[in-house]
Design goal:
The structure is a single chain. The protein is an alpha/beta fold. The chain is 42% helix and 13% strand. The chain has 19 helices and 16 strands. Helix 4 runs parallel beside helix 5. The longest helix has 20 residues. The N terminus is likely disordered.
Length: 479
């Protein structure tokens, strides 16, 4: 070992040339640092002055270490790494139940290909629902969220009621932190349903794609009437009756609103929402059928996302707190050592580990996208059925085992050396859909392209470190 190398140890990190003047370094705990290219050369050639501010910054982030402090550096790094991977200790906390596939809408981007309102055979029976709840409470996680999905779940209201009642009774024994969410288009809400939702502290997740013109463009009622007008009517009723605002909304970005995201954002603010989740189109169900009509290149989404994010930041700077939820989620992964619980951004994948979905007939899939894939005719990810298989065989079976083995970014080609590895995750179902291989192919992956683009946008803002923008960002992840 020569004299220069004895000065300090370069700890493991991934890196990339971020711009013409800076190199971005990120370690396995998510600590990042921007180095000028000349300083990066000095770093890897062991020529950094240990008395310099740059060296002290790198040392505080466990990107370098003094020889005498290597044990402490490793311990600090491993502690933060364990925090990031803590989701593995909280096995399966999100449990989605497909209460029915029937729906009073026929949205052009419907990912599940819903059924007509009269197709009652696609309802989850109370017996199946009770069986599903039994399986849910087998989960070792202390935190349990039951999310009712569809179709339009309010079309099978009686099963929702019996499921909530049964779960609450069962929880008197298990004493878990139990939450409920109904994913609904709101249009079938009435006072009876809202009172039940209120009494059982149920959250509501709904969909809103913008103003009347943009919302009605793709969210189409089967009877031909405006879905927006009915949505507004029921939103006002729910907010008037609920003891606190428990309604959040998701939007889907199509070619119809991708250049009008400022209009969408303004609509969310006008209707009293606290934030928005800018969501790209997913290639499942009818969305894949109509992709030529409603789709767009992923590069267009990245560009539109950046413009929308800047618009939202300006709204916040002017005094209105309004969150872009996906940016907030990514910021939490970048700026804190804590996990987010978001299934798509975990390594190994959160599919089946963090979340799972139960189809109307009791079939179990590791993610909603896997259930959507089954609706398209491919049941590759079917884990089992609550009437045919026991809990251990389902959650310790080949499907989850294969996902775990092939979705660890540290071992995936193109991911293992990516500078954003620590912040990102694997999407094995999307990989399989596009390549018939759950490992996938990074150079052609839109999931990969999207997240690299979004991380570039956010890290560039962190590098510029504008005080007003940083104040906005910290307010989003501190709420």
């Amino acid at each position: 070992m020569n004299e220069n190398k004895s000065k300090y140890i370069v700890m493991p990190f991934n890196f990339k040339l971020f711009d013409n003047e800076h190199v971005l370094l990120v370690n396995d705990a998510g600590d990042y640092y921007f180095l000028k290219t000349s300083d990066f050369d000095n770093l890897i050639n062991y020529k950094l002055d240990k008395r310099s501010a740059i060296y002290q910054d790198l040392n505080s982030r466990q990107l370098v270490s003094d020889y005498n402090d290597i044990d402490l550096s490793i311990e600090l790094l491993s502690t933060k790494y364990r925090s990031i991977k803590s989701f593995l200790r909280n096995f399966t906390s999100l449990h989605m139940m497909v209460i029915t596939l029937r729906c009073n809408h026929k949205c052009r981007y419907c990912q599940v290909t819903s059924e007509v309102e009269e197709a009652y055979k696609y309802d989850m029976s109370p017996e199946t629902a009770r069986r599903v709840v039994d399986y849910i409470f087998y989960s070792p996680s202390h935190n349990i969220k039951i999310e009712f999905q569809g179709g339009e779940p309010l079309l099978n209201w009686s099963t929702i009621v019996s499921t909530v009642d049964y779960a609450e009774v069962l929880n008197k024994k298990y004493k878990k932190n139990l939450e409920f969410v109904i994913c609904t288009n709101l249009t079938l809400l009435d006072e009876e349903k809202i009172n039940f939702i209120n009494n059982h502290n149920i959250a509501i997740s709904t969909s809103l794609d913008g103003n009347k013109f943009l919302h009605d463009k793709n969210r189409i009622l089967r009877n031909g009437k405006s879905s927006y007008d009915l949505f507004i009517e029921k939103l006002e009723l729910a907010r008037k009756m609920l003891t606190r605002n428990r309604i959040s909304a998701l939007m889907t970005t199509t070619i119809d609103n991708i250049d009008k995201l400022n209009i969408v954002i303004d609509e969310y603010i006008k209707l009293g929402f606290d934030g928005i989740f800018l969501r790209a189109l997913n290639p499942y169900g009818l969305a894949s059928k109509y992709v030529n009509d409603i789709g767009y290149p992923i590069e267009k989404f990245i560009s539109a996302f950046e413009e929308a994010l800047n618009y939202i930041i300006e709204i916040n700077i002017k005094g209105k707190r309004f969150i872009e939820y996906y940016t907030a989620l990514l910021l939490k992964r970048i700026l804190t050592p804590f996990g987010t619980g978001f299934v798509d951004l975990q390594s190994p994948s959160g599919a089946g580990i963090a979340g799972v979905i139960y189809d109307f007939n009791g079939d179990i899939y590791p993610a909603d996208e896997a259930r959507m894939l089954a609706r398209m005719g491919d049941k590759h990810f079917l884990m089992g059925n609550v009437f045919k298989d026991n809990y251990i065989d389902i959650f310790n079976g080949e499907v989850i085992s294969d996902i775990v083995k092939k979705s660890c970014l540290d071992a995936m080609p193109g991911c293992a050396t990516c500078v954003y590895k620590t912040y990102c995750g694997a999407d094995p179902i999307r990989n399989y859909l596009e390549t018939k291989d759950i490992v996938g192919h990074r150079p052609s992956s839109n999931f990969c392209k999207k997240h690299m683009g979004l991380f570039d946008i956010i890290l560039n803002k962190l590098k510029n470190n504008k005080e007003e923008e940083m104040n906005v960002f910290w307010s989003w992840i501190s709420y």
